Amino acid sequence: MKFATVALSALAVSLATPAMADHHAAGTEAAASAYPMTPQGAADWVAMVEKDMFDFSVEYGRVLWLNNTYIVHDSDQLAAKYGAEATEKSVRYANEAAKYARVEGLDAEVARKLDILRNGIVMPAPVRDGAATELNEIATKLGSAYGKGKGTLNGEEINGSDIEAEMGNLDRTPAELAEMWASWHDNVGAPMRGDYQRMIAIANEGSKELGFADLGAMWRSNYDMDPDQFAAETERMWQEVKPLYMALHTYVRGKLNARYGAEVQPATGPIRADLLGNMWAQEWGNIYPLVAPEGAGDIGYDLTDLITAKGLDEIEMVRTGEQFFSSLGFEPLPETFWERSQFVKPQDREVVCHASAWDVDNVDDLRIKMCIKKNADDFITIHHELGHNYYQRAYNQQDYLHLNGANDGFHEAIGDMIALSITPEYLVQIDMLDEADVPSADKDIGLLLRQAMDKVAFLPFGLMVDRYRWGLFDGSIPADQLNKGWNDLRLEYQGIVPPVERDESGFDAGAKYHIPGNVPYTRYFLARILQFQFFKAACDQAGWEGPLHRCSFYGNEEVGKNLDAMLEMGASKPWPDALEAFTGERQISGAAMAEYFAPLKAWLDEQNAGMAEGW
Fold first, then answer.
1. Of 296, 525, 538, 553, which sits with the fewest C-beta atoms within 10 Å of its C-beta?
2. 199 in helix, strand or coil?
3. Torsion of CA 219, 480, 514, 156, to 10 degrees
């Protein structure tokens, strides 16, 4: 997640505390008399909760900012103290919201807010003594185990960040890649197996106390529709983009076969998971040089060189991003943004460099936190993060529980939609690229393939991570088939297989951070689809008539006005209403992504002629 929200429902995602601990008994009795179990009592209780959460979140937001930009013992201690209080509030309010949700005759808006509150905990603990403590202890243990995890390379230990980088090193042999893959999954995932099963059993029990069939149903209840309907909707989206993935899979498999030979990578069937440049085979961009079309490397310009030639410093790079939004009619960023943001890495202290966008006071104390380098990646990231900031400011008039994206895929999709807009045509409009240097159409395939190796390759992985957990939560993946369930879904959706034999002593899913970290993953799948739907809507409104991937809507205030109409809704309406406000559609659709990559799909089909598709 690349934006920082201080909504409590998002802060305590993997923690749990006793829902009705003894020291809250008196407070609970007082609340019962002040806020009776009636429609009006529920409405008054929600109003009280929103005021409390708003006030607390502003203070907590400042503590978190301090802890991210000034990492010392004292800021760690403050963050831990406020984090514990945030967790306690979110769990207590979720359990109380579950009770008010059963009141007959609730106002529709109150009922929706109660759902937001009770869905706000990712791993809920049941109320029985000791359950929350056990759940927290296991979650902490698993998180620590992942962070300390190590694999091996040529028999030598290697840490997580280094092994990720080495998996994308094209100089590594298949044997070295297999060693790193197997050692990471064996050393990190396998030891978690028993603890993970115990943790989800406790959380499943907690979800049932909140009124859900199981934990997966609870997670899927965040989308303004029946949980099973949402599962079907995501499968529909996948089927819309699956032909594009299948074509990419076939093409990449052929290139890997040509490089490594049939003994390592057969010409048909699934792809060996460790050959795709990423520990989890979720994005394949690291192996682009192996699959690049002939002559595709030179696109006629280098964005990093353009930044240097223009003489932009780090602040000016951000000013350029701001100008993108100003050209759409958005108000300039407040002066405090420039005073309080972290743009470059300080020399005198430790900070979190991972890029994020903040609205500390839930109104207009907007900031970004980056350690900007003067290169293309950070120029694109700046546009992405500012997308979050403008979204945050657009919905700042909403009630506290609506200070968020329309669903958890929207925020990332807005940032990514803005990043898609950094086309050669846009660079010409802002006087960074000479019109004579705009790449010719014959360079498009290389550009699109490079994007597809990350954005398209990710789609089935983005879908199956939660598909797997839903199966564990509802029992359709049996406890004695934990590893088989994971690898079967990897084969079904991604068409990949482990490089070595796997058995039920392992827990390969645990080798992916979001599994032991208890981070729901479907949001990332939604964001990959939505960003193209938003981008196409903007381009259509701007009257763009060329290929979609070349579109620029820079300077079009009509697009800005329509975009703002969606952004200002925040989470106040069901997400189909927000989607319709900007795109005219009420379904998330992969059609725009298919159109964006249509020239690549046609080219891939030509390259794949005579090759067997699928596995």
1. 296
2. helix
3. 180
Does the annotation mark 385 as catalytic? yes
Q: Which of 59, 209, 514, 595 is catalytic?
A: 514
Q: Is 558 annotated in the active site?
A: no
pLDDT value of position 188: 94
What does the pLDDT look like over 125-153, one tens digit per residue? 888 888 888 988 898 888 888 888 899 99
Residue ranges of the alpha helices (H) in 506-556? 522-541
Q: pTM to 2 decimals?
A: 0.90
Question: CA 215, 217, 218: angle at the middle one, nearest 5?
Answer: 60
- Computed from CA positions of residues 252, 257, 262, 264, in that sequence, does the dihedral angle turn out positive or negative? negative
Q: Say if residue 337's pLDDT is above 90.
A: yes
- Contacts of 30-39 with CB under 8 Å at 24 or more apart are 31/96, 37/99, 37/100, 37/103, 38/103, 39/103, 39/104, 39/105, 39/106, 39/107, 39/110
Question: Tokens at residue 117, please?
Answer: 């509150």
Give the DSSP letter string of 557-609: HHHHHHHHHHHTTTTSS-HHHHHHHHHS-SS--SHHHHHHTHHHHHHHHHHTT
